[in-house]
Design a protein that fits this description.
single chain; 337 residues; alpha/beta; D-Maltodextrin-Binding Protein, domain 2; twelve-stranded mixed β-sheet; 11 helices; globular
Length: 337
């Protein structure tokens, strides 16, 4: 079967929505001046969670007079858009390099990751989502190499989700980076099975639930969201997979830094973290209630693979990264825009 790819235009896929109406006029005792609008720029998947989180924040003294403008899209595209001038008071990305880009651009303070949560707002793990009942019996990374298995994962040169997926597979098959040849051999063998590479994790999920593919490599929270939306999807957590850590920060040029910081502080409260958990994200604050999450027996982190500063260049540099020739063999360009 000929290899197919589909790459959705990066900036064109950004979804912009305005949520909430201004509360009563005047200043509240806890903050939130009248007429304040915060711009939230985030990666593609937490949009549903933020609908509930923003409503909960607006019920607090700090948030009662704050409205929000929201933009969602592929993590890398969102980061580059802010770098190029997209207004943002709060940014949340799929992975750390997209925040680092804004630190280098002097748009986010270098101390963004020095709090007790290391700058992260939610966690997740990479999973293998399947059709209901798992008819192809997908259990392990090796099962993706079975003849005829159709895999969906986003484009790693646009999507943070895709980069997590690749590092999960690579880390599992390379014994956490100690056998690079084995890890690269696995990726080389797996990518010919990938029939569609969308520009974001959410777009990849939409492709999968529309009926394309046998297995979707994705965030655990995306598989849970699909189930919550009534889609006939199951998922498997491989024994060896990676811990996903999602960064958040207030921008240095925010017009409303007090309100933006209050919102980020609220997102770390037990109430907000439970909302995240109810939407499939693993909370960074312990003991918030909500669903329980299984811990894979061989869970590893990006630091086990050398950290994002190393991995970003080693694998995803659009000119010399290790993924460039792997994708080129399958007709996918590393130049996303």
């Amino acid at each position: 079967m000929p290899h197919r790819t589909r790459i959705v235009a990066a900036l064109g896929a950004v979804v912009v929505a305005t949520v909430g109406l201004a509360g009563c006029g005047g200043s509240s005792a806890g903050g939130g001046s009248a007429g304040v609008t915060l711009s939230l720029v985030a990666y593609s998947t937490p949009q549903a969670a933020y609908t509930k989180l923003i409503a909960a924040f607006k019920a607090t003294p700090e948030g009662r007079n704050v409205t929000f403008k929201q933009s969602y899209g592929a993590s890398g595209d969102q980061s580059r858009a802010v770098q190029s001038g997209l207004k943002a008071d709060v940014v949340e990305f799929s992975l750390e390099p997209d925040m680092t880009r804004l630190v280098k651009a002097n748009l986010v303070d270098a101390s963004w990751n020095t709090d007790q949560y290391k700058g992260f707002i939610t966690d997740s793990v990479v999973v293998l989502a399947t059709r209901k009942g798992n008819p192809k019996n997908i259990r392990t990374w090796d099962d993706l190499l079975k003849p005829g298995i159709d895999v969906i994962t986003p484009n790693p040169f646009a999507s943070g989700s895709a980069r997590w997926n690749i590092m999960a597979a690579y880390g599992a098959k390379s014994s956490k980076g100690t056998d690079q040849a084995a890890g690269l051999a696995y990726l080389t063998a797996m990518f010919p099975h990938v029939s569609v590479q969308d520009t974001s994790g959410r777009a990849a999920t939409q492709t999968f639930v529309s009926g394309k593919g046998d297995v979707l490599i994705s965030y655990e929270n995306e598989a849970i969201a699909a189930q919550q939306n009534g889609q006939p999807v199951d998922y498997v957590i491989p024994d060896q997979t990676i811990l996903i850590e999602n960064p958040i920060a207030v921008t240095k040029n925010s017009a409303h830094p007090a309100e933006a910081k209050a919102f980020v502080a609220f997102l770390h409260t037990p109430q907000a973290q439970k909302i995240f958990a109810d939407n499939g994200y693993r909370p960074v604050v312990q003991g918030v209630g909500g669903p329980s999450f299984a811990t894979p027996p061989h869970l590893f982190t990006i630091n086990d693979l050398g950290g994002w500063s190393k991995v970003q260049t080693q694998f995803f540099d659009p000119d010399k990264g290790l993924m460039v020739p792997i994708e080129a063999r399958n007709g996918v360009s590393s130049k996303t825009g």
